[in-house]
Structure prediction request, 253 residues.
Amino acid sequence: MKHHVTRRGLVGSLVAGAGLAVSGCDRLGQSESFQNLLSGAETLTMRAQRLISSRDALAREFSAAEMSPVFRMNGNTMPADPAYARHAANGFADWRLKVDGLVQRPLALSLGAIRALPARTQITRHDCVEGWSAIGKWTGVPLKTLLDAAGLRDGARYVIFHCADDFGGTRYYESIDLIDAFHPQTILAWGMNDAPLPVGHGAPLRLRVERQLGYKHAKFVTRVEVASTLANTGAGKGGYWEDRIDYEWYAGI
Ligand SMILES: Nc1nc2c(c(=O)[nH]1)N[C@H]1C(S)=C(S)[C@@H](COP(=O)(O)O)O[C@H]1N2
Ligand SMILES: [Mo]
Prediction:
């Protein structure tokens, strides 16, 4: 259907661009030059569509047999914040995830409430920019579910993930655009390899944004902020490492 609509749109503009009057569709459909125009448009559309839709494509998913026996922990493995340690010690029972910023209904959700929402499980490969990869199984709530529940407000363009950990007092954070935010494989994971998400891997919630490199997958997420700009967070480049050492903000793989 999408293909059909796009083709009609493109044919329409090509016809208009060529200065042809689209009066009798039947007559046009029979003309040989129109058929040529149509097949040319079709090829063009396929190419254009591939370009446009590549951001929506799914990351490869693997079988259970392909899961890595060891999945390395990287970056911070235990936030220094004493409040985090208290939450971890009591199983995150009083912990809340905030969803706020440019939303109609700010949310504060317990881990129990988040785990009660419909979950998605996916076995994917994590690629770290430092040169290692691992295949793991992730279970969590699609970010789309939370964003739909909160309702985006006008001007919403980015989703910023605020984390509980820091490097030398500077908090870790990351951000993505709305294409990735609503991607079906973008989840806030609370489970890993059929067990609760371990602290070292970002408990109680960590982002999985499967079309991008490892550093985008914010661990220890405490707040999901919807924003119109990245300029007002950290040094304004959209993430801890982007601010520090010029890692790409869009780290597509
Ligand atoms: N909050 C937070 N998120 C983070 C990091 C971090 O140090 N702090 N490190 C990033 C990097 S570079 C990678 S490769 C992955 C590592 O995730 P893992 O520990 O589950 O392997 O988390 C990413 N997310
Ligand atoms: Mo990484």
